Amino acid sequence: MAMPENLDWEDIEHFVITPTRRQRHFVELDLDAYLAEPATAAGELTLDNLKQRKVAVKFISSAEPVDRWNVYQCLVSEQRVDGSLYALVEGRWFEIAESLVTQVDAVVSAIPQMSVSLPAGHPGESEGDYNARAAASSAELALLDKQLVAPDGAATKIEFCDLIASDGSLIHVKRKSRSSTLSHLFAQGHVSAEALVDGQLRDQVRAAITKAAGTKDASAWLALVPPSSAAPNRDNVTVTYAVIANSRAKGIEWLPFFSRLTLMQTVRDLNRIGFTKVALARVPVEDESPHT
Protein backbone atom coordinates (compact mmCIF):
# COMPACT_ATOMS: atom_id res chain seq x y z
CA MET A 1 0.00 0.00 0.00
CA ALA A 2 1.10 3.56 -0.66
CA MET A 3 -0.35 7.06 -0.47
CA PRO A 4 -1.78 7.98 -3.89
CA GLU A 5 -0.77 11.62 -3.45
CA ASN A 6 2.23 13.48 -2.10
CA LEU A 7 1.90 14.29 1.59
CA ASP A 8 4.73 15.29 3.89
CA TRP A 9 5.49 12.40 6.24
CA GLU A 10 6.61 14.92 8.82
CA ASP A 11 2.98 16.09 9.13
CA ILE A 12 1.45 12.61 9.60
CA GLU A 13 0.79 11.05 13.01
CA HIS A 14 -0.83 7.81 11.80
CA PHE A 15 -3.39 6.27 9.42
CA VAL A 16 -6.73 4.67 10.14
CA ILE A 17 -8.43 2.25 7.75
CA THR A 18 -12.04 1.07 7.96
CA PRO A 19 -13.38 -1.16 9.34
CA THR A 20 -10.54 -1.09 11.92
CA ARG A 21 -10.88 2.63 12.73
CA ARG A 22 -11.50 2.24 16.46
CA GLN A 23 -9.27 -0.76 16.99
CA ARG A 24 -6.08 0.08 15.15
CA HIS A 25 -3.77 2.96 14.25
CA PHE A 26 -1.28 2.29 11.45
CA VAL A 27 2.03 4.15 11.46
CA GLU A 28 2.60 2.85 7.91
CA LEU A 29 0.25 1.89 5.10
CA ASP A 30 1.11 -1.79 5.49
CA LEU A 31 -1.06 -4.26 3.57
CA ASP A 32 0.02 -7.27 5.63
CA ALA A 33 -0.77 -5.48 8.88
CA TYR A 34 -4.18 -4.41 7.56
CA LEU A 35 -5.11 -7.89 6.33
CA ALA A 36 -4.03 -9.41 9.65
CA GLU A 37 -6.67 -7.42 11.55
CA PRO A 38 -9.73 -9.59 12.36
CA ALA A 39 -12.10 -6.73 11.50
CA THR A 40 -10.74 -6.65 7.96
CA ALA A 41 -12.22 -10.12 7.23
CA ALA A 42 -9.51 -10.67 4.63
CA GLY A 43 -11.01 -13.93 3.37
CA GLU A 44 -14.25 -12.17 2.42
CA LEU A 45 -12.85 -9.09 0.67
CA THR A 46 -14.38 -8.05 -2.64
CA LEU A 47 -13.49 -5.33 -5.12
CA ASP A 48 -16.49 -3.33 -3.92
CA ASN A 49 -15.22 -3.61 -0.31
CA LEU A 50 -11.83 -2.24 -1.32
CA LYS A 51 -13.41 0.71 -3.12
CA GLN A 52 -15.77 1.51 -0.24
CA ARG A 53 -13.40 1.22 2.71
CA LYS A 54 -11.80 4.52 3.64
CA VAL A 55 -8.19 5.33 4.43
CA ALA A 56 -7.89 8.37 6.69
CA VAL A 57 -4.87 10.39 7.76
CA LYS A 58 -4.43 11.69 11.29
CA PHE A 59 -2.31 14.79 10.79
CA ILE A 60 -0.35 16.14 13.72
CA SER A 61 -2.27 19.41 13.33
CA SER A 62 -5.74 17.83 13.07
CA ALA A 63 -8.00 16.82 15.95
CA GLU A 64 -9.46 13.84 14.10
CA PRO A 65 -8.39 11.62 11.17
CA VAL A 66 -9.35 13.00 7.76
CA ASP A 67 -10.68 10.66 5.06
CA ARG A 68 -8.41 10.90 2.00
CA TRP A 69 -8.75 7.79 -0.18
CA ASN A 70 -10.28 4.35 -0.43
CA VAL A 71 -8.25 1.18 0.07
CA TYR A 72 -8.24 0.30 -3.63
CA GLN A 73 -6.62 3.63 -4.52
CA CYS A 74 -3.79 2.84 -2.09
CA LEU A 75 -2.99 -0.59 -3.50
CA VAL A 76 0.16 -0.97 -5.57
CA SER A 77 0.62 -4.23 -7.43
CA GLU A 78 2.48 -5.71 -10.37
CA GLN A 79 1.12 -8.95 -11.80
CA ARG A 80 2.01 -11.12 -14.76
CA VAL A 81 -0.95 -12.46 -16.72
CA ASP A 82 -0.40 -14.61 -19.82
CA GLY A 83 3.19 -13.41 -20.01
CA SER A 84 2.38 -9.68 -19.85
CA LEU A 85 3.17 -7.34 -16.96
CA TYR A 86 0.34 -5.25 -15.52
CA ALA A 87 0.75 -2.57 -12.86
CA LEU A 88 -1.93 -1.22 -10.51
CA VAL A 89 -1.18 2.37 -9.54
CA GLU A 90 -3.60 4.84 -7.92
CA GLY A 91 -6.61 2.68 -8.81
CA ARG A 92 -5.70 2.20 -12.48
CA TRP A 93 -4.22 -0.78 -14.30
CA PHE A 94 -1.53 -0.35 -16.95
CA GLU A 95 -0.17 -2.95 -19.36
CA ILE A 96 3.58 -2.57 -19.83
CA ALA A 97 5.35 -3.58 -23.04
CA GLU A 98 7.73 -6.49 -22.42
CA SER A 99 10.50 -4.84 -24.45
CA LEU A 100 10.37 -1.86 -22.09
CA VAL A 101 10.41 -4.10 -19.01
CA THR A 102 13.51 -5.89 -20.29
CA GLN A 103 15.30 -2.63 -21.08
CA VAL A 104 14.48 -0.97 -17.77
CA ASP A 105 15.29 -3.97 -15.60
CA ALA A 106 18.64 -4.50 -17.32
CA VAL A 107 19.73 -0.94 -16.50
CA VAL A 108 18.43 -0.93 -12.91
CA SER A 109 19.83 -4.39 -12.14
CA ALA A 110 23.28 -3.15 -13.17
CA ILE A 111 23.28 -0.28 -10.64
CA PRO A 112 25.73 -1.17 -7.84
CA GLN A 113 24.63 -1.46 -4.24
CA MET A 114 25.49 1.44 -1.98
CA SER A 115 28.94 1.05 -0.46
CA VAL A 116 28.04 2.72 2.84
CA SER A 117 26.23 0.80 5.58
CA LEU A 118 23.05 2.50 6.80
CA PRO A 119 20.88 1.43 9.75
CA ALA A 120 17.40 0.00 9.23
CA GLY A 121 14.47 2.40 9.39
CA HIS A 122 11.84 2.25 12.12
CA PRO A 123 8.05 2.12 11.58
CA GLY A 124 6.62 5.63 11.51
CA GLU A 125 10.05 7.27 11.67
CA SER A 126 10.32 10.53 9.75
CA GLU A 127 13.01 10.98 7.13
CA GLY A 128 14.56 13.76 9.20
CA ASP A 129 14.80 11.59 12.29
CA TYR A 130 16.18 8.70 10.25
CA ASN A 131 18.86 10.86 8.63
CA ALA A 132 19.97 12.25 11.99
CA ARG A 133 20.14 8.75 13.49
CA ALA A 134 22.07 7.40 10.49
CA ALA A 135 24.62 10.23 10.69
CA ALA A 136 25.07 9.65 14.41
CA SER A 137 25.64 5.93 13.84
CA SER A 138 28.75 6.31 11.66
CA ALA A 139 31.88 8.44 11.71
CA GLU A 140 31.86 8.20 7.90
CA LEU A 141 28.67 10.25 7.58
CA ALA A 142 27.87 13.94 7.92
CA LEU A 143 24.28 15.20 8.08
CA LEU A 144 23.35 17.75 5.40
CA ASP A 145 19.59 17.19 5.58
CA LYS A 146 17.70 20.50 5.68
CA GLN A 147 20.92 22.41 4.90
CA LEU A 148 19.65 24.46 1.97
CA VAL A 149 21.96 26.00 -0.62
CA ALA A 150 21.24 28.18 -3.65
CA PRO A 151 22.80 27.49 -7.07
CA ASP A 152 24.11 30.56 -8.88
CA GLY A 153 21.21 32.55 -10.31
CA ALA A 154 18.54 30.25 -8.83
CA ALA A 155 15.45 31.69 -7.14
CA THR A 156 14.93 28.61 -4.98
CA LYS A 157 17.23 26.67 -2.67
CA ILE A 158 17.99 22.95 -2.80
CA GLU A 159 19.32 20.25 -0.50
CA PHE A 160 22.71 19.16 -1.80
CA CYS A 161 22.15 15.73 -0.24
CA ASP A 162 20.81 14.24 2.97
CA LEU A 163 24.04 12.50 4.01
CA ILE A 164 27.57 12.78 2.67
CA ALA A 165 30.00 9.91 3.21
CA SER A 166 33.76 10.06 3.33
CA ASP A 167 33.98 7.53 0.46
CA GLY A 168 32.30 10.01 -1.90
CA SER A 169 28.69 8.88 -1.60
CA LEU A 170 26.21 11.76 -1.87
CA ILE A 171 23.24 10.02 -0.28
CA HIS A 172 19.64 11.01 -0.99
CA VAL A 173 17.09 9.36 1.30
CA LYS A 174 13.35 8.88 0.79
CA ARG A 175 10.66 6.69 2.28
CA LYS A 176 9.02 4.56 -0.38
CA SER A 177 5.56 5.82 -1.23
CA ARG A 178 3.98 6.50 -4.60
CA SER A 179 6.09 6.43 -7.77
CA SER A 180 6.09 10.22 -8.05
CA THR A 181 7.67 10.52 -4.60
CA LEU A 182 10.57 8.35 -5.74
CA SER A 183 10.73 10.29 -9.00
CA HIS A 184 11.29 13.38 -6.86
CA LEU A 185 14.09 11.54 -5.06
CA PHE A 186 15.83 10.66 -8.32
CA ALA A 187 15.41 14.23 -9.56
CA GLN A 188 17.04 15.53 -6.36
CA GLY A 189 20.14 13.49 -7.11
CA HIS A 190 20.28 14.81 -10.65
CA VAL A 191 19.83 18.45 -9.59
CA SER A 192 22.50 18.02 -6.91
CA ALA A 193 24.97 16.56 -9.40
CA GLU A 194 24.37 19.38 -11.85
CA ALA A 195 24.84 21.91 -9.07
CA LEU A 196 28.21 20.44 -8.10
CA VAL A 197 29.80 22.29 -11.02
CA ASP A 198 28.59 25.60 -9.55
CA GLY A 199 31.49 27.15 -7.63
CA GLN A 200 29.30 29.45 -5.55
CA LEU A 201 27.15 26.51 -4.45
CA ARG A 202 30.20 24.44 -3.54
CA ASP A 203 31.37 27.18 -1.20
CA GLN A 204 27.96 27.08 0.49
CA VAL A 205 28.06 23.28 0.73
CA ARG A 206 31.55 23.40 2.24
CA ALA A 207 30.26 25.80 4.89
CA ALA A 208 27.37 23.41 5.61
CA ILE A 209 29.79 20.47 5.89
CA THR A 210 32.03 22.35 8.31
CA LYS A 211 28.98 23.22 10.43
CA ALA A 212 27.67 19.64 10.35
CA ALA A 213 31.06 18.17 11.26
CA GLY A 214 31.27 20.15 14.49
CA THR A 215 34.34 18.90 16.30
CA LYS A 216 34.93 16.06 13.81
CA ASP A 217 37.65 16.19 11.16
CA ALA A 218 35.78 17.37 8.03
CA SER A 219 38.70 17.04 5.60
CA ALA A 220 37.46 13.85 3.89
CA TRP A 221 34.06 15.37 3.15
CA LEU A 222 35.48 18.74 2.12
CA ALA A 223 37.82 17.00 -0.34
CA LEU A 224 34.76 15.82 -2.28
CA VAL A 225 33.46 19.37 -2.71
CA PRO A 226 36.33 21.60 -3.77
CA PRO A 227 36.08 25.38 -3.30
CA SER A 228 35.02 27.66 -6.14
CA SER A 229 38.67 28.27 -7.00
CA ALA A 230 39.14 24.59 -7.99
CA ALA A 231 37.44 22.28 -10.48
CA PRO A 232 35.24 19.44 -9.20
CA ASN A 233 36.14 15.85 -10.07
CA ARG A 234 32.98 13.96 -11.01
CA ASP A 235 34.75 10.62 -10.54
CA ASN A 236 35.21 11.33 -6.83
CA VAL A 237 31.48 11.20 -6.05
CA THR A 238 28.76 8.57 -6.27
CA VAL A 239 25.17 9.76 -6.61
CA THR A 240 23.49 7.41 -4.14
CA TYR A 241 19.80 6.70 -3.63
CA ALA A 242 18.65 5.11 -0.37
CA VAL A 243 14.96 4.11 -0.29
CA ILE A 244 13.40 3.18 3.05
CA ALA A 245 11.04 0.39 2.06
CA ASN A 246 9.18 -2.25 4.02
CA SER A 247 9.24 -4.93 1.33
CA ARG A 248 10.09 -8.62 1.04
CA ALA A 249 10.28 -8.54 -2.76
CA LYS A 250 13.39 -10.04 -4.31
CA GLY A 251 15.82 -8.54 -6.78
CA ILE A 252 14.73 -5.09 -7.96
CA GLU A 253 11.01 -5.77 -7.71
CA TRP A 254 10.79 -3.93 -4.38
CA LEU A 255 10.98 -0.81 -6.56
CA PRO A 256 7.73 -0.20 -8.52
CA PHE A 257 8.10 -0.46 -12.28
CA PHE A 258 7.38 3.21 -12.97
CA SER A 259 10.03 4.13 -10.39
CA ARG A 260 12.49 1.80 -12.11
CA LEU A 261 11.67 3.51 -15.40
CA THR A 262 12.36 6.95 -13.93
CA LEU A 263 15.57 5.71 -12.34
CA MET A 264 16.80 4.35 -15.68
CA GLN A 265 16.18 7.73 -17.31
CA THR A 266 17.91 9.52 -14.43
CA VAL A 267 20.99 7.27 -14.63
CA ARG A 268 21.28 8.02 -18.36
CA ASP A 269 20.94 11.76 -17.72
CA LEU A 270 23.62 11.61 -15.02
CA ASN A 271 25.94 9.70 -17.33
CA ARG A 272 25.46 12.34 -20.04
CA ILE A 273 26.71 15.10 -17.73
CA GLY A 274 29.71 13.06 -16.65
CA PHE A 275 28.48 11.39 -13.44
CA THR A 276 29.05 7.71 -14.15
CA LYS A 277 28.97 6.47 -10.55
CA VAL A 278 25.45 5.83 -9.27
CA ALA A 279 24.40 3.53 -6.42
CA LEU A 280 21.11 2.27 -5.02
CA ALA A 281 20.06 0.72 -1.72
CA ARG A 282 16.88 -0.53 -0.11
CA VAL A 283 16.85 0.34 3.58
CA PRO A 284 14.68 -2.19 5.43
CA VAL A 285 12.15 -1.24 8.08
CA GLU A 286 12.54 -3.00 11.41
CA ASP A 287 10.89 -2.59 14.79
CA GLU A 288 12.99 -0.79 17.38
CA SER A 289 12.55 -3.64 19.85
CA PRO A 290 15.48 -6.10 19.79
CA HIS A 291 14.69 -9.53 18.42
CA THR A 292 15.09 -12.45 20.77
Secondary structure elements and their pairing?
Layout lengths: L11 E6 L13 H6 L10 H6 L1 E6 L6 E5 H4 L2 E5 L2 E6 L2 E5 L1 H12 L17 H11 L3 E3 L4 E2 L8 E2 L3 E3 L3 E7 L3 H17 L3 H15 L5 H4 L15 E7 L12 H16 L5 E6 L9
Parallel strand pairs: 11-12, 12-13
Antiparallel strand pairs: 1-2, 2-3, 4-5, 5-6, 7-10, 8-9, 10-11
Helix pairs in contact: 4-9, 6-9
Order of helices and strands: EHHEEHEEEHHEEEEEHHHEHE
Gross geometry: globular
Q: Number of helix segments? A: 9
Q: Proportion of β residues?
A: 15-25%
Low-confidence stretches: none
DSSP, total strands: 13
Radius of gyration: 21 Å
Lateral arrangement of strands in the main beta sheet: 7-10-11-12-13
Number of domains: 2
Residue-averaged pLDDT: 89
Helix content: 25-40%
Outline the biggest β-sheet: 5 strands, mixed
Would you kindly provide a written description of the structure presented here, covering whatever features stand out?
The protein contains nine helices and 13 strands. The chain has 292 residues and is α+β, with helices and mostly antiparallel strands. It folds into two domains: 9-74, no CATH class; 103-283, no CATH class. Helix 4 packs across helix 9 and helix 6 (179-195) runs parallel beside helix 9. The model has no long low-confidence stretch (mean pLDDT 89).
